[in-house]
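Give me C-alpha cells for this 151-residue protein.
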Amino acid sequence: MKSTIGRNCLILLLGFLSLGAIGGGASLIISPNGSLIGMPLFLLKKSPFHDFLIPGIVLFLLLGVAPFVLVFALIRKPASEFVEKLNCYDDMHWAWTFSIYTAFILIAWIQLEMMFLQAVSWLHTFYMSLAIAILFVALLPAVRSLYQKSS
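Here you go.
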C-alpha cells in the first residue's frame, strides 16, 4: 500500500513538472522574444542566449516531454535496451533512474536560470522544492522496491 502511494506521488510530481514545462517551453518556442508569457529579452543579457528559443526547446524536451514519458514508463515499466545503456543503477528499472536524473536536471536548470538572471523568485524556490520532493519520493524504500529488478 505504501509503495503504491509513493509511486503515485512520484507520478503526480513528474506529471505536474511535465505540464508546466511543456506549457512554458512551448510558449518560449512559439514566441522566442518572451512576449507570450511576459518575459522581456533583457532578462537574457547575462546569458549566452539572444532570445528564448533554445531555452524553450530545452525546457520543453528535458523537463516537459521527458517527464511525461516517464509517467507512463513508471506505470508500465517497459523494457528498453537503448535507455538501459544510460541507466547507472543496474539493479533498478530505467524509469526510476531517469526520475532521479530529471530531478537533477531540474536543479541544474533552476541554478543556471538564477545565475543568468542574477535573481531569485518564489518560482525558483518552488521548483527547487519540487526537485527535492521528486528525489525524496523516488528514494523512499517502498518506491525503490517497486522498481528493483529481480535477480
